[in-house]
């Protein structure tokens, strides 16, 4: 018997025990589904993070208020830092504008309520004031209507841009352009719709009402607002040096003493994405371990079934040996059967894993993840199926190859 005949005989044997083959392949399929599905979901979540930060550019960073130092040492009081006010933020923008593009933003309210006729949003809508560079530097796009004009930025006109979550709550299928809404008691005209951005980190990028910066300051009259600053440059290759220049300018604006620490925080815009990459690696390792344990159980079940198959076909093995089949050919035949069963289950598991993994990623990332075809994990899954087939089939196949042909022919 040559290898081609062995493969054909193995397939005939699988076909002759179709129900058992299907049930065995199903066990393998579930193991591969868990392995490839988990890894696909993790890749999908990573793509969501990449999409969230793709519009920010590689050379951008944020300057924000520094949180209070919560660590108390003996004889020391909790250290608090003053907020970045409008004067300081504007001064920084004027001083650093020749070196990079600067955007200012302020959170007017994180729990605003927007109303249109009898409908209103949940009290978790973000009302933010922005300048002319914010949309570009933060990766937003105007999906309908228009952006703010220079006149609207300068003269604090009561106009706004709405995120898709706000539109869905207030307007449903109605066109919101040129409609008027009430936000915290102030009437605003809707001039534009923000394209869906998505944010798996829970930042509410689509649950937002944007107004010109001066309009936001007007709406918050009597309150001390704090301002966030984003700086970007497309010409700088060494971002660390660029950030140090910005740090020096901001320390000058904030009048930080030479020997003191920074009274503000300075963070790269892609720092969260880079941090998440290391988390993703750990999640992938965990997913691989879980899938491996599932496949280990499946391989034990397959080994048991192959042992049963050897017992049932003892006389057949005796006949083949009496006709000249070598122990190697018998070993080869049973290994081929085990590998083919694993490959059938593996292919079925991969077909199930791709939509399941992508659905999980879409659910976790609120629809921001890209659809992933995990070619790497599909290849790994197929390789693992072959290894599982070898692991599960080697002992039954070895046992079959060592049977004495005379004893095998006598077997009832």
From TrEMBL:
Residues 21-245 form the MacB-like periplasmic core domain. It is found in: Cell membrane. The chain crosses the membrane at residues 21-42, 285-310, 330-354, 374-395. It comes from the Bacteria. Keywords: Cell membrane, Membrane, Transmembrane, Transmembrane helix. InterPro entries: ABC3_permease_C, MacB_PCD, Macrolide_Exporter_MacB. It is a multi-pass membrane protein. Residues 289-405 form the ABC3 transporter permease C-terminal domain. Pfam families: FtsX (PF02687), MacB_PCD (PF12704). The keyword Transit peptide does not apply. Its main location: membrane. Belongs to the ABC-4 integral membrane protein family. This is ABC transporter permease. It comes from Aquirufa avitistagni. The lineage of its organism: Bacteria, Pseudomonadati, Bacteroidota, Cytophagia, Cytophagales.
């Amino acid at each position: 018997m040559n290898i081609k005949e062995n493969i054909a005989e193995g397939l005939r044997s699988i076909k002759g025990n179709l129900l058992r083959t299907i049930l065995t392949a199903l066990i393998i399929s579930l193991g591969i589904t868990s392995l490839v599905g988990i890894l696909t979901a993790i890749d999908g979540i990573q793509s969501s993070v990449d999409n969230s930060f793709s519009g920010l550019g590689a050379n951008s960073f944020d300057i924000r208020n520094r949180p209070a130092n919560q660590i108390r040492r003996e004889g020391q009081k909790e250290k608090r830092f003053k907020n970045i006010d409008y004067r300081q933020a504007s001064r920084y923008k004027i001083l650093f504008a020749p070196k990079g593009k600067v955007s200012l933003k302020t959170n007017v309210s994180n729990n605003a309520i927007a109303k249109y006729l009898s409908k209103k949003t949940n009290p978790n809508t973000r009302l933010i004031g922005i300048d002319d560079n914010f949309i570009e530097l933060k990766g937003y796009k105007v999906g309908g209507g228009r952006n703010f004009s220079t006149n609207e930025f300068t003269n604090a006109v009561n106009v706004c841009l709405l995120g898709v979550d706000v539109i869905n709550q207030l307007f449903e299928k109605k066109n919101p352009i040129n409609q008027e809404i009430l936000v915290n008691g102030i009437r605003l005209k809707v001039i534009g719709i923000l394209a869906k951005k998505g944010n798996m980190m829970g930042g509410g990028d689509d649950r937002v009402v944007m107004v010109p910066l001066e309009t936001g300051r007007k709406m918050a009259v009597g309150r001390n607002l704090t301002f966030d600053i984003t700086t970007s440059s497309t010409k700088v290759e060494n971002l660390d040096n660029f950030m140090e220049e910005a740090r020096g300018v901001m320390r000058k604006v904030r009048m930080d003493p030479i020997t003191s620490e920074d009274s503000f925080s300075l963070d790269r815009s892609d720092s969260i994405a880079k941090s998440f990459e290391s988390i993703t690696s750990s999640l992938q390792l965990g997913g691989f371990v879980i899938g491996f344990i599932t496949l280990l159980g499946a391989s034990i079940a397959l080994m048991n079934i192959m042992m049963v198959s050897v017992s049932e076909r003892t006389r057949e093995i005796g006949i083949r040996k009496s006709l000249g089949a070598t122990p190697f050919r018998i070993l080869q035949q049973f290994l081929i059967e085990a590998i083919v069963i694993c490959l059938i289950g593996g292919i079925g598991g991969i077909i199930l894993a791709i939509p399941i993994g992508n659905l999980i990623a879409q659910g976790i990332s609120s629809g921001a993840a890209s659809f992933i075809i995990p070619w790497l994990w599909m290849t790994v899954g197929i390789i693992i199926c072959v290894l599982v087939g070898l692991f599960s089939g080697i002992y039954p196949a070895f046992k079959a190859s060592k049977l004495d042909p005379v004893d095998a022919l006598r077997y009832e």
